[in-house]
Amino acid sequence: MKTFTVVIADDHEIIRDAIQSKMSMHSDMGQTDFELLACAENGIDAIATVKAHKPDLLFLDISMPLANGSEIIHDIRRWSPDTKVVVFTGVSAPGLIASIVETGVDGLFSKSTSLNDMFQQIPTIMQGGRYVAPELVEIIDQGQKALTLTGRERQILNMVVAGKTNKDIASELNISPKTVDKHRTSLMQKLDVHSVAKLMVRALQDGLVEPV
Predict the structure, then answer these.
(1) pLDDT digits (tens, 9 = 90+) for 48-68
(2) Domains, the chain, with CATH or none
(3) Please, are residues 11 and 40 in contact by the beta-carbon 8 Å criterion?
(4) What own/partner pairs with CB < 8 Å and gap ≥ 24 does 90-95 have?
């Protein structure tokens, strides 16, 4: 059974401990043998630790102090190109998740994913495969749908978030309330929501409008 050397980079001790515990469990069960080389609590230490140890695998929290995720991954690819990078993140904005994927990470998981699910994918990743958790793929897809909003839809979305009724919007834009309702229905379909409240939340979370 091959031993994989590992670095864990996360600024929360509870996350580092949970990953270490799961690694020990897998090693004890003879599934995959892991050797923990070091832990890092911020982005600068993550880069320095990987540069020093050149591990087979890095578990990386994309949101840490002192360096952003893209900077960390860029430098890791420079100093240790053979290290497999598995990112776990609490980020939910489609644009940010898509940018993480574009860095070429080997695995991308949500922090809401169970560690069992993540570790099931590690053998595939270590053999050269790439994996993005389905829930994150769905978020990216939803974000791509949002990019197809027309100028009028974005205009109406801003007005909906501002709390204006169909009648208010129709009056300001000099269009019929029926036309406003048609645009709002299109917005809900594109953003995969089923109420005005959820439409507003989605618009604010994804940065489709300025917070009001």
Answers:
(1) 999 999 999 999 998 888 887
(2) 3-141 (3.40.50.2300), 148-205 (1.10.10.10)
(3) no
(4) 90/63, 91/62, 91/63, 92/139, 92/205, 93/143, 93/205, 93/206, 93/207, 94/139, 94/140, 94/142, 94/143, 94/144, 94/146, 94/206, 95/143, 95/206, 95/207
DSSP code at position 107:
E
DSSP string, 36-70: EEEEESSHHHHHHHHHHH--SEEEEESEETTEEHH
Tell me the pTM: 0.68
- In the predicted model, residues of the chain with pLDDT beneath 70 are 1, 28-31, 95, 144-148, 205-207, 209-212
**C-alpha span between 179 and 185 (Å, rounded):** 10
Residues in the chain: 212
